[in-house]
Amino acid sequence: MPPNKLHDLPERTIQEDDYFRKLDADLIDRLRRHAAIEEERRLLAKAAGTNNQEILQELAQLGYDRDTVNLLHLVPLLQVAWLSGSVTDSERDHIEQIARLRGVKPGSRPYQKLDEWCRHRPPQEFFDRSLRAIRMLLESLPAGERKGSVTDLIQYCLHTAAASSSLFALGRRVSANERKLIARIASELSHVHETEARDVIAAAQVARAINHVSVRYFKKILLVVNHDWDRDSAFKKALLLAKRNGAELMLAGIYRGPEPPSADDEEESRHIGDRLSVMASAAEHARIRVRQKLLVGKPELEIIREVLRNGHDLVIVSAGKGGLREALFGSSIMKVLRKCPCPVWVADERAPARNGRIMAAVDLDPLNQQTIELNQKIMDFAISAARLDKGELHVVHAWRFLEKHVLMDAPQLPAGTADRALDESEAVRRQWMESLLGANPPGDVRYESHLVEGDPGLVIPATAKRLKADLIVMGTVGRSGIPGLIMGNTAERILRHVHCSVLAVKPDGFVTPVRLEGE
């Protein structure tokens, strides 16, 4: 019997309806995916600052999106860091510092991607294609802006190479292999031969330090809380530094004891805890990562042990209402300054929260490597502080011409001999000062250099008073470089005569005599 066509019609209709429903669903899904891709492409274009479809396609193929494209210009730095086979802690600190200043927040997806690149080397093809994408983006800029951007990026690479064994960009020479790689990067970015790229590198080396390269990066700040926190300049400074650096802030109250505590002691302990909680709330309101802790025992020992336990890279303490001079006598602050392994910022309560004038006290001795390295630290911190507060920098060297009185009292010498010798000695020191500023360029920071003749313990405080300095950055260990060496007499004399905030730093290799319990 022939098939009944009319009987089969409903079944065919159902099958056709199912077919077209699936077809429509696939079409709608494709349209949605296309719309999502177009929206992602639009957001990528906005984040990358270009509508060039070739560039956007290249970026998308490399895995960049609207969030991670901000990491593109960090890839050459990573390539330099990976040249040695691994990314060192100091290289990573340097790269993360720049990432934060480019808006990459800790814990974000771009930050996690950067962490992945630092732990696992990306393929060489990724480096090469990313570099070409950067060049394509740069080619869309005006010639003058493009040249400046290339110079800045090469300077970043040089700082990364120099940071491979030092936290400070000028603490180490760039190796031949690093220089060769940077030349290749400069060649690709500038679209010139590698031999011509040397001019690009030279321009980067002599260019002014860009605004955020030299900013000292703190990851963990320890604030020792005083009694009048609501009028506390140290608290305001800690908030400012933590906010600017994306750092974690530890609020530490000090409770001396005794054990077991009396009723009055328990009341004091609760009062300290309440104050810490209020301060922590204020920090959280400012979107700062904050923790709080009550330290029990001798203040100087517990502060330094807290630094050793948790790796804080800056301690901030308040000089109190009486100022630094009164705070140092018979207090624990001087002991912390002597023995703390990390920099210590003693905030004068009378000083403004922002430092308008920063004074870097340096000791010029081109034959002493420890002095050279300590000067680099002092300059790095001082430049950073000046940039942070948009202040002006004063680099001061105090020196004594020990033979001056001997020459003046020698009748057999021609008249004016002492004055000529003094002038020659000052000229040598002026050359040293120029070399120091050349090796540590203040860049866009307004600065002046000062050579003052006389006893440093007297003329440094006098110069700070004359300049109306808000902050002095100085070294606090003598030249011998013995681990754990107590702070030098000159540094202590200076500290006892100044009337402003002080940031005290120590040279590399300093080892605190304080030990953790059980060691």
Write a short abstract of this structure.
With 519 residues, the protein is α/β, with parallel strands linked by helices. 53% of the residues lie in helices and 11% in strands. α6 crosses α8 (176-190).
What can you see in these coordinates?
The protein has 519 residues and is α/β, with parallel strands linked by helices. 53% of the residues lie in helices and 11% in strands. The chain contains 19 helices and ten strands. It is globular. It starts with a helix and ends in a 14-residue tail after the last strand.
Cα separation of the termini: 102 Å
Instruction: Report the principal-axis shape.
Output: globular
The strand order across the widest sheet is 3-2-1-4-5-10-9-6-7-8
Category from helices, strands and their pairing: alpha/beta
| Overall pLDDT metric | 76
Give short descriptive properties of this protein.
519 residues, ten-stranded mixed sheet, 19 helices, globular
Give the arrangement of secondary structure elements.
Elements: H1 5-48, H2 53-61, H3 75-81, H4 89-101, H5 109-119, H6 124-139, H7 143-162, H8 176-190, H9 197-206, E1 220-224, H10 233-245, E2 248-255, H11 263-285, E3 290-296, H12 299-310, E4 314-318, H13 323-328, H14 333-339, E5 344-347, E6 357-361, H15 369-389, E7 392-399, H16 404-408, H17 417-439, E8 447-453, H18 456-467, E9 471-475, H19 489-495, E10 501-505
Parallel strand pairs: 1-2, 1-4, 2-3, 4-5, 6-7, 6-9, 7-8, 9-10
Antiparallel strand pairs: 5-10
